[in-house]
Amino acid sequence: MQQNKIKEIITSLALETLPVEGTLFRNTYRATQTNSLGEPLGTCMIGLFCQEPLSLSRFHRLTHDEIWHCYGGNPFSLYLLYPDGQSEEIVMGQDILAGQKLQHVVAAGTWQAARLCAGGTYAIFGCTMAPGFTGDCFEGGTIEMLMGQYPDRDNWIRELAVHGQETKMPEGFAG
Q: How would CATH label the architecture of 42-90+104-162?
């Protein structure tokens, strides 16, 4: 039953797989106005985390802040690796009285990954950026890139690092 619901959500939202990172997503807004660097002034996307088909966000960092929004479904965790070597797990969800967050800002330059919390079926979320997302603002994190600075997060890194050696978005992606 849940599997059919997930397939219906994927179809209804017209989701596709984000290169390198692995998230089921769809761009929902891209400003036509640009800054002096030619970047859109803002972008928004909607995404789905689920187990089948597997959809999660592998470690990556961006050159601009990113705002995560929780829209529905089950809680999911953001795994953050800060430039100073610190780390943090943020649980995104609708139970704000239990400490879950509806919204969280990930600062530029922070390695970030996300996935459903244990026992979850799906989570619908969104991300907003200003300046907006372009393929050039993205860098995926491999095990080799992350282990030296964050050895205490071995479990997160082994599970959520970018698989393979491709760490950049395809040429012209979201350009």
A: Sandwich (2.60)
